[in-house]
Design goal:
The complex is a heterodimer of chains A (318) and B (259). Chain A contains ten helices and 13 strands. With 318 residues, chain A is α/β, with parallel strands linked by helices. In chain A, 42% of the residues are buried. Chain B contains eleven helices and no strands. Chain B is globular, with a radius of gyration of 19 Å. The chains are: A alpha/beta (318), B mainly alpha (259). Chain B: One of its GO terms (molecular function) is ABC-type transporter activity.
C-alpha cells in the first residue's frame, strides 16, 4: 500500500462537467466541479439526491466520459490508463447487481479470479461477517447482505483508493456501523477513501474532509468543524410574530413550519437580549431551542437553496 | 483485441456454471443442438440428402440456440441485473466480458458440430469430404452469430423482449437455405437468398462434408480439391457477414440498462 504521497492528491478534478442527452433534452448534472482527495484521507462527498455525486464518481471510475474538465486518479487518466487504475482501486457502485444463482462464496471466487492481488475469499467473508451466509445463493440474501458482498468485492483487491457510492444506503443501523468500522480500517491500512453519502452523521463520523455538493457544484469544502464554523447559530420557539428583529447578532428572522427561527452570528448575545425582551414583555417562549451551528444546519440550508452567506465559509475551498 | 486468456477462461467457466443452474438456458445451450442428430435416423441409411439435411439443421440449431439466442439472453440479463456494470469497475476488460459470455455457447455449438462426425458415420454416412471447410463453416457461424447477438442486445430492452428482437436474425438465418432449395422460385430470389448468412452456412456443410455441387445437388460429385473452388462463394459470403456483424456489434455495445 502506498501512502507516501502526502502532498499529491489521490484524486484531482478540475472544471468537471457532465451533460446527459443533447439539444433541448440536454441536462447538465455536473457543472464545473473542482475536487482534491488527499492521499490517505477519507473524503466524503455529501449532497442530496440528484446533486450530481454519482455522475461525478462515474467519471472518476472511468465508466462515463466527462463533457469537459480534467480528471486524474492516482495521477492517471481514468479511461486511457484504465487497466493500471483498476488494479489499484476498489469501487462500490450505488446500484449494482449479482447473478442470483451463484452462492456468496462462489460470487467472491468469481470476482477473485479477475484480480491481480486478491485477498483470500475466506478473509473477506470474515471481514464482512458473511461466513454464515457463504453457501447461500445471492438471490436469497437480504439487501444489507448483498451490499456487504458488494463491499467485499470492492475491497478484495486491497486497493489504494476506494470509491464508495452511498455504501450504507438501505442498511440497518447495525450494518451501517459495521461499514463505518470497515472504512476506518481502510484508513489504518493507508488507503484513500472517497465516499458519497446523504447521511450527515456518517459524513461527520467518518470523514476527514467534506465536500458538499449541490446542483452539480461543490459549494463547501473543509473539515466538518470548518464547514459549520461561520454558519449562523439558531434560536427557535413556537411562533411569535411579535419578536423584535433587531436583537444583537441576529441576521434573519424566519417564520415558517409553525415555528419562529432566529439566525444569529452571536448566539449568547442574541439569546440574552431575547430573554430580556421576553421578561420585559412577560412573554413565555414555548418550546425554546438554541443551538450552535451544526453540519446539519449548513447542509439543510444548502439543500433548501437558502444558502445564507457563503463568503466567510469558504474555509477549505481552493 | 486486448484480452487476458486466464481471466476470460475463468469468467467463461463461471458463466458455464450459471448456464447449468438455469434449466431453460441449459436446454437451449446444450440439449437443443443435439436433437437434429435424430434426423440421421430418418430417410435411407447413408443417403447424402438425408445426411445433408440433418447436418445443416444441426448447424442451424447449434448456431441459433446455444450461440445466438443464448448469448443474447445472457448478455441482456447480466446487463439488466447490473452485473456487467459492476464487473466493469474491476480489472476485467470489456473484451473479456464479451468473450466469456459467448464462450460456453460457442463451445457447445462447436462441440456438437464435431460430435456429429462420429455419430453420422455410425449411422452410415461417409466422413466429410473436406473437413477443413466444414470446421471453417462452423467457426465463422459461431463468431458471426455471437456478434449478431451482441448487436441485437443493444436494442433489446429486457430478457423477455429478446424473444421478439431475436426474430429478424432467426428468420433471416433459417429461411435462407429454405429459399435456395425451393425449385419453383424466380432466379432473382434464389440468387438473393444465396447471399443470406443461413444459405452460406448450409452450403458450407453441403459442400464441405457431402461434396454436393449446388443447392439442388443430391449426389456427392465433388472431391477434396474441387470443394475449395465451389465453396469460395459461400465462404466469402459468411466471412463478409461475420465482419458486418462484428462492426455492428462494436458500434452498438451498451453495458447498462436504459434509465
Amino acid at each position: 500500500m502506498n501512502n507516501d504521497s502526502g502532498s499529491k492528491p489521490a484524486v484531482r478534478v478540475r472544471g468537471l462537467r457532465r451533460t446527459y442527452g443533447t439539444g433541448h433534452d440536454a441536462y447538465e448534472a455536473v457543472r464545473g466541479v473542482d475536487l482534491d482527495v488527499p492521499a490517505g484521507s477519507i473524503t466524503a462527498l455529501l449532497g442530496t439526491n440528484g446533486a450530481g455525486k454519482t455522475s461525478t464518481l462515474e467519471v472518476l471510475e472511468g465508466l462515463a466520459p466527462a463533457s469537459a474538465g480534467e480528471v486524474s486518479v492516482l495521477g492517471l487518466h481514468p479511461v486511457s490508463d484504465r487497466a493500471e487504475i483498476r488494479r489499484r482501486t476498489g469501487v462500490l457502485l450505488q446500484r449494482s447487481g449479482f447473478s442470483g444463482d451463484l452462492t456468496v462464496r462462489e460470487t467472491l471466487r468469481q470476482w477473485s479470479g479477475t484480480l491481480t492481488n486478491p485477498r483470500p475469499v475466506d478473509e473477506m467473508l470474515g471481514l464482512l461477517s458473511l461466513e454464515d451466509r457463504a453457501d447461500v445463493r445471492m438471490l436469497a440474501l437480504s439487501g444489507g447482505e448483498t451490499r456487504r458482498v458488494d463491499l467485499a468485492s470492492a475491497l478484495m483487491g486491497d486497493p489504494e483508493l476506494v470509491i464508495l457510492d452511498e455504501p450504507t444506503t438501505g442498511l440497518d443501523p447495525e450494518s451501517r456501523r459495521e461499514v463505518w468500522r470497515l472504512v476506518d480500517g481502510l484508513r489504518e491500512r493507508g488507503a484513500t477513501v472517497l465516499i458519497t453519502t446523504h447521511y450527515l452523521e456518517e459524513a461527520e463520523t467518518l470523514a476527514d474532509r467534506l465536500e458538499i455538493m449541490h446542483a452539480g457544484q461543490i459549494v463547501r469544502s473543509g473539515t466538518p468543524t470548518e464547514i459549520a464554523k461561520g454558519h449562523p447559530s439558531t434560536i427557535s420557539f413556537a411562533p411569535r410574530p411579535d419578536v423584535p428583529e433587531d436583537l444583537l447578532g441576529v441576521r434573519r428572522v424566519i417564520h415558517e413550519h409553525n415555528r419562529t427561527t432566529l439566525e444569529t452570528s452571536a448566539l449568547q448575545d442574541s439569546l440574552t437580549e431575547l430573554m430580556a425582551w421576553a421578561q420585559h414583555n412577560e412573554v413565555r417562549l414555548e418550546d425554546l431551542d438554541a443551538r450552535s451551528p451544526s453540519l446539519e444546519s449548513v447542509f439543510l440550508a444548502i439543500a433548501d437553496g437558502r444558502d445564507p452567506d457563503p463568503s466567510p465559509l469558504e474555509v477549505g475551498s481552493l | 483485441m486486448d484480452l487476458s486468456i486466464k481471466r476470460t477462461a475463468h469468467l467463461a467457466r463461471w458463466n458455464l456454471v450459471l448456464l447449468t443452474r438455469n434449466r431453460l438456458a441449459f436446454v437451449y445451450a446444450v440439449v437443443m443442438p443435439l436433437l437434429p442428430l435424430l434426423l440421421l435416423l430418418t430417410g435411407d441409411r447413408g443417403s447424402e440428402t438425408a445426411g445433408a439435411s440433418a447436418i445443416t439443421t444441426l448447424f442451424l440449431v447449434a448456431g441459433l440456440f446455444p450461440v445466438y439466442y443464448n448469448v443474447l439472453a445472457q448478455f441482456v440479463n447480466r446487463r439488466d441485473e447490473l452485473v456487467l456494470k459492476r464487473m466493469r469497475t474491476g480489472e476485467v476488460r470489456d473484451s473479456e466480458l464479451v468473450a466469456s459470455i459467448a464462450l460456453p455457447g460457442i463451445a457447445s455449438a462447436l462441440g456438437v458440430s464435431l460430435v456429429a462426425i462420429p455419430v453420422a458415420v455410425a449411422f452410415g454416412q461417409e466422413l466429410p469430404v473436406n473437413v477443413l471447410l466444414y470446421v471453417a463453416g462452423a467457426v465463422f457461424t459461431v463468431v458471426m452469430l455471437s456478434a449478431f447477438a451482441f448487436w441485437t442486445a443493444a436494442w433489446t430492452k429486457s430478457a423477455e423482449s429478446a424473444q421478439l428482437t431475436s426474430l429478424p436474425i432467426i428468420l433471416i438465418v433459417s429461411f435462407g437455405p429454405l429459399f435456395t432449395s425451393i425449385s419453383g422460385l424466380p432466379d432473382v430470389l434464389r440468387d438473393l437468398a444465396e447471399f443470406t448468412p443461413g444459405s452460406a452456412m448450409s452450403e458450407m456443410v453441403r459442400i464441405g462434408w457431402f461434396g454436393l455441387d449446388g443447392p439442388d445437388a443430391t449426389k456427392t460429385t465433388l472431391d477434396f480439391a474441387e470443394t475449395w473452388s465451389v465453396a469460395a462463394e459461400p465462404l466469402l459470403v459468411i466471412v463478409a457477414w461475420t465482419f458486418v456483424a462484428i462492426s455492428l456489434a462494436k458500434r452498438s455495445m451498451r453495458w447498462e440498462p436504459r434509465s
